[in-house]
Amino acid sequence: MSSQEDGAAEPGPETVEPSNSSNDNDATTGDIISVTIGATVPTGFEHTAAEEVKEKIGVDARISKDRGRIYFPITTDKLFQVHRLRSVDNLFVVVEEYDSYQFKESKEETLMELQQLASTLPWTNALEVWKLNRTFKKKKGYRKGGNGTKGKPKSEAPDATVADTEQQELPQTTSTEENQTEESVPEAESDTQDSVEAAPGAKLIKFRVTCNRAGDKHSFSSNEAARDFGGAVQEFFQWKADMTKFDIEVLLNIHNSEVVIGIALTEESLHRRNISHFGPTTLRSTLCYGMLRLCKPQPSDIILDPMCGTGAIPLEGAIEFNSSFYIAGDNYDMAVNRTVNNICHIQKRRADKGSISGLPIDTVRWDLCSLPMRTSSVDIIITDMPFGKRMGSRKKNWDLYPSCLREMARVCRPGSGKAVLLTQDKKCFSKAISRMGGLWKKLYTVWVNVGGLHAGVYLLKRTEALFGQTPEDVYESREAVSARGDEKADKEIS
After folding, report:
1. Distances in whole angstroms, Cα of residue 90 to Cα of each of 10, 170, 264
2. Backbone angles phi and psi of 2, in degrees to 5
3. 448 with 160: CB under 8 angstroms?
4. 198, 224, 250, 260 - which has most CB atoms within 10 Å?
5. Which tens digits make up the pLDDT trace of 219-276?
6. How far is the C-alpha of 469 from the C-alpha of 439, rounded, in Å?
């Protein structure tokens, strides 16, 4: 373990950072600090996120062994650029990281070592970045259960977090057992955050520790690690533990032997940025961005989402790749209404900020298998297909998928058109693609985690074959093929 020489005196309850050695950089004096930023990203799109970091910030990102995380170095003068990344869910500044942390064999020894670790970590720079980061964020008040006002924040935790971590999120984030009831203490939300920002020395800092653990060779649970490590952090800083109305969230990320300690920089996941009217299968905006980058939209491209749901994909495209034009459609009135409401929400938000409110997007209600569009009129098709879980059924997918692919091939430009399709029904999709080999060519697949489901993002290219001149143009349902087979068998028997 690496450690930093710290002063002997412990920080008092009115300080924000520990009294580390005097040669540390201090952001409050205007010095530029170099730190490592960690980001959680949609699982499977780590390389896409790394490409965006290189493109927009100009640094190389390192992909973690733990899927769904990347790390990259920045200086504090570029911190505002980090919040403009479209492919990251949550951001945190790294306090310390260990590639091969040697855990003790017994649980008691391991937890004791985690307690001792808290006082040896180089907290100063990370805390300075946390304070600087607060100037880039709006004053939203405190999170309740990890979020401000919207529900189910923890159901959308980073995909790489193991199941037991997500299920135990609330209890494990308490730092000490005796403070588990503090979430019910009433306190004014409006003046608390102001006081922390305006005069941090005059207010007792509240914190919580969240442990995300993956791996089956640990002698301890996520809850135990967060409790003991959090207790040591509380003792070292003299902060107050609070699960809901906290100022600082300390992250303890453990993946097998990789250990990363960080401080959260985002209060609400960035993937919730566009959608105000959610549906049963609304995609994360960060996942939508990753899918859009796969197809590389060009200026003047016509981009179609024939099963738009709440419009998450075309909305993300219209905001980030606004030189293309987007058409969002669905066969459900409620889905079309949600899309329209989400578009209006974004337009109003942009108008309130004084920006141009118009978006290059339109919404239509239609039948997916009979699109009211000209043949070869679309450059890119990108959509989230029904998995057959919460929407549709696996049985119906056997008829729906080939019909979808055939109609998509009709409206897509031969030779240059592309499709990016997300589905978890891999067997059905593979069968449908094999039957449409004359119209579509599969380039590659990105495997992603969508709400705990292992799904594939398929990048397809439209072949040069003209629609109407291939055997795939005519499609018969399984029922029709089966009925014809039974009829033939009956004739043979007779």
Report:
1. 31, 18, 8
2. -95, 150
3. no
4. 250
5. 999 999 999 999 999 999 999 999 999 999 999 999 999 999 999 999 888 777 888 8
6. 10
Where is average pLDDT lowest: 43-57, 165-179, 271-285, 296-310? Answer: 165-179
Q: Is 349 left (phi over 0), alpha (psi -120 to 50) or beta?
A: alpha
- The residues, ordered by sequence, that sit 6+ positions from 460 with a Cβ below 8 Å of its Cβ are 418, 419, 420, 421, 433, 440, 441, 442, 443
- Give residue 100's Cα distance to chain centre: 26
C-beta neighbour count of 188 within 10 angstroms: 11
Give me the amino acid identity at 406.
R
Q: Is 351 helix (H, G, I), strand (E, B) or coil?
A: helix
> How is residue 401 written in tokens?
């998928």
Determine contact, residues 93/265, Cβ cutoff 8 Å: yes
How many other CB atoms are there within 10 angstroms of residue 392's CB atom? 16
The two three-digit tokens of residue 175, written as one number:
């730092």
Q: Is 255 helix (H, G, I), strand (E, B) or coil?
A: strand
Strands 62-63 and 69-75: antiparallel
Tell me, what DSSP letter sits at residue 278?
Answer: -
Structure letter (DSSP) for residue 21: -
Beta strands at 90-98 and 258-264: parallel, antiparallel or unpaired: antiparallel
Alpha-carbon distance 128 to 126, whole Å?
A: 5
CA of 96: how far to CAs of 3, 16, 65, in Å?
9, 18, 16
Q: Which of 160, 176, 319, 317 lies closest to 236, judged by CA? A: 176
Report the candidate in 292, 290, 275 with the shortest Cα–Cα distance to residue 349.
275
CA–CA gap between residue 301 and residue 324 (Å, rounded): 5
Q: What is the pLDDT of residues 346-392, one digit of tens each?
A: 999 988 888 877 899 999 999 988 999 999 999 999 999 986 555 55
CB atoms within 10 A of CB 403: 15
Cα–Cα distance for residue pair 83/98, rounded to 1 Å:
26
Measured CA to CA in angstroms, residue 150 lies from 144, 154, 252, 269, 323 at distances of 9, 11, 25, 11, 32
Residue 465 is given by DSSP the state: P
Look-up: residue for tokens 């970045």?
A: 129
